[in-house]
Amino acid sequence: MSANNLKVVENASEDCIYVYTLGCFEVRSGGKVISNNCKRSQQLWNLFKYTFTYRNKRIIQENFFGILWNDKECDNPVKALQNLVYRLRMLLDYKGINKDCESIINFSQGCYSWNNESDYWTDVDEFEEIYKKANVAQANDDFINAIELYQMALMLYKGDYLCEDSYNEWVMPVRNYYHRIYMDIISRLTKILKHYGRTEDILKVCEEALMIQPFEESLHVIYIETLIGVGNMKQAQKQYEYVTSMIYEEMGAKPSTALRKLYSQIKCNGNKNILDLSSDLSSIQKIMTDSSDSNGAFFCEANTFISVCKLECRRAVRTGKVVFMGLITVSKAKHRAHDSKVLAKSMGSLLDMLIQGLRGGDVVSEWSETQILVLLSEATFKQANMVLTRIINKHEMAYANGDILVKILLKSINDCD
């Protein structure tokens, strides 16, 4: 099977109905789109979508009532449902679908069901079938065929299942199912492509996928890893800055561990490339004193923070300089139910406030999912406590509903022994 076969199937039969669900919903029959008037017949097409989604099940009448009318009053929902089914049958059967069967929608023993004997084609069945064939090819080490099949499946996935029905709960299980397949295809395909050194193809797969799923962090991770692999550190850093900014602005979340590790690789490889080009002391000094990222406190990983703290302990013993370390803990209020998303958003916001609010000589590190460590130099206990309290108060104003509690513990590292 080739990509061209997917296009030929649309003209296979004049009597066939073609249902597209991955991305924008569309129903075609006789070479024409018959679902264009969705706004004027919203309930009619909601009936179609629900029946078609669960086409392998028999659906009791009561299930349709909540889907079609929700909380709106309906004097006679049974009769209203019968009228809708009749209208839908007339619309679909009129298009020549019902030549060899009684109707495209059956009714038996109080249940409606999609007639699977009717002549129809749908993108999700094709998508899943190609996915299964590709998995078999991969398992048999037929990697070239697997690549072609996975690429064909990706061509069919133009968006989430019935994406325009994002607020309908009944769609979610099916949508998540096909989304999981989609992400598994990308994972499998990029691993095979990496094995063959086809980095340009990996980048193309990720770029096309990110147009459909811009908030899927795992796609950004694969993309950045590939950029690092080909030595394109500049583009890798731009992509990192783009995704972390987008995730924070849209969801209030901080960069994941995977993204932060990639950022460390970008910085490490970027500096290594520069140092390889010039080994004189003045060039190295210029790199070390680069002030392009010197706004606010210095943010680092936990291991780096430990090393910095040990160095400050040694310096404090020798110079007598007082340096304070603060432990900031974020937690949910006891009277509130635990919500990891609220905590993550709060931590991301607080981390950003600390980095921006502290001085260039201070150090900030995320110690755990609910704790942040800070190192404050050139400050008395009163000054250090005042600065941290000011930032915490600012943070609490953003969470004035009382969901989040923040505690500060402040101690001099001169007592490190």
Q: Can you give me a brief rundown of this structure?
A:
This protein is an alpha+beta fold and 417 residues long. The protein is 56% helix and 13% strand. The strands form 3 sheets. It has a 5-stranded mixed beta sheet, with helices on both faces. The chain has a 4-stranded mixed beta sheet with strand order 3-2-1-7. The chain has a 3-stranded antiparallel beta sheet with strand order 4-6-5.
How would you characterize this protein structure?
The chain has 417 residues and is α+β, with helices and mostly antiparallel strands. It has three domains: 1-192, Arc Repressor Mutant, subunit A (Orthogonal Bundle); 214-270, no CATH class; 298-415, 2-Layer Sandwich (Alpha-Beta Plaits), CATH 3.30.70.270. Helices cover 56% and strands 13% of the residues. The chain contains 15 helices and twelve strands. The strands form three sheets. The protein has a five-stranded mixed β-sheet with strand order 8-10-11-9-12, with helices on both faces. Strands 3-2-1-7 form a four-stranded mixed β-sheet. Strand 5 and strand 6 form a beta hairpin. It is elongated and about 95 Å long. The termini are far apart.
Keywords:
13% strand; Alpha-Beta Plaits; elongated; Arc Repressor Mutant, subunit A; alpha+beta; 417 residues
Order of helices and strands: HEEEHEHHEEEHHHHHHHHEHEHEEHE
Query: Cα distance, first to last residue?
Result: 71 Å
Number of strands: 12
User: What is the tally of helical segments?
Assistant: 15
Poorly predicted residue ranges = 1-12
Mean pLDDT: 83
The SS-based structural class is alpha+beta
- Count of domain modules: 3
Please outline the major beta sheet.
5 strands, mixed
β-strand percent reads 5-15%
Q: If you consult CATH, what is the topology of the largest domain?
A: Arc Repressor Mutant, subunit A
Radius of gyration: 29 Å
- The helicity comes to 55-70%
Q: Could you say which overall geometry the principal axes of the C-alpha atoms support?
A: elongated
